[in-house]
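Input record (one chain):
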Amino acid sequence: MKAFFVFLFCFVCVENSYSQNWDINTLHKINSLDSKFIRHSSKFIAGSTPYIVVGLPTCMAIYAGLNKDCGLFEDAVYIGTSVIEAFAVSYGSKILIDRMRPFEKYPDRVDEQERPGDPSFPSIHTASAFSLATSLSIKYPKWYVIAPSALWACSVGFSRMNQGVHYPSDVLAGAVLGTGCAFANVYINKWLKKWLLPSVKKEITICY
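The corresponding structure, as predicted from the sequence alone:
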């Protein structure tokens, strides 16, 4: 996590340099892809992301509770807390950096498909998606989990750029943050498993 904040600092230092030109030029190309299929797909993917990142670990936890499946319940807690951590850190970073949305700074080059009211950097959608995809891949390291998860997470990042609401650097930072939170939460989850889960399991009688 410390490395991510170093990345944020470096980004702020070079925001007005060549990297920003690359940012808006790349965004302009992706945002200009305006076929009906791409636009509708981007809208659907972006709109469904919050429901997927919240719904999947929630459904896993409910199913585990109903079937008294301790292992699945622990996986659900790990995946859910990874997403929560990614959301919290990315939202805090938005407030700290306070970067203008691309459609606000470059109204002549960006065709926005929606108008979020919060700052741009980093992308919370992308951070949450990569946190979910990475944590799922860590818990279930099979190609049929990793490949679709990675493809979906990347499509979320693409959709946010196609909609004109995020720069590529916003998406890249979100991907790094979400992935980092999932890996960091492996160790945090060990603490949760040791100190919190025994009492939670007892309360919901998941193992009895």
